[in-house]
């Protein structure tokens, strides 16, 4: 874990409050911006409306606070606590006025049944063989009926990218993806009822087109944003998606 922490400390120091630090280092600012736009839509339309008034919410792997800000904008009545492995990111989160705890996902320093809601956006992917342990911790610290939003990479598209590039299956940011059925199965087994699920299959397909993952031309940026908006309305839980999402309720 010390190596993982050191990696994230270096990364947060290098990128600060830039999307490159918390999303894909191999993608352009426009491509990461389109992904961030989609994440923001998920928070505002899939998680925020289902939270109880005054809900206490934990942002797992909060980074510098981009997702907490979206949730608070959509639901100013809720209270959000950030948690990250990197002390640099925790400092940035706190500098922006939020409360943040520096901790490991597998050992969360919170009492049982502390939170009414939880979001972990591209965080569980870094748990590796401890994914079930992390989900068990999420179950422990949330109240019965708590709502949870998870977003993580799809393993299938990572394998496809690896074949196209002649290399091994790996996400551009490190960590690991989850298979389509394995993801929901893991969440269900941890004691959460999966209510809704989806992915960003349209944007994922566009990013496979040569030039779109790294290009910064204005027309590319416009098409990336338009395709991300299409994922907000039409994309289902597809076999090939760079990111998949699940809304689940704690049993």
Automatic annotation (TrEMBL):
What EC designation does it have?
A: 2.1.1.-
GO biological process terms, alphabetically, are:
methylation
**What residue stretches are annotated with the Methyltransferase domain?**
57-145
* Catalytic class of the enzyme: transferase
GO-annotated molecular function: methyltransferase activity
Keywords linked to the UniProt accession: Methyltransferase, Transferase
CDD domains linked: AdoMet_MTases
Q: Does the keyword Methyltransferase apply?
A: yes
Q: Which InterPro entries does this entry report, sorted A to Z? A: Erg6_SMT_methyltransf, Methyltransf_25, SAM-dependent_MTases_sf
Q: What is this protein called?
A: Class I SAM-dependent methyltransferase
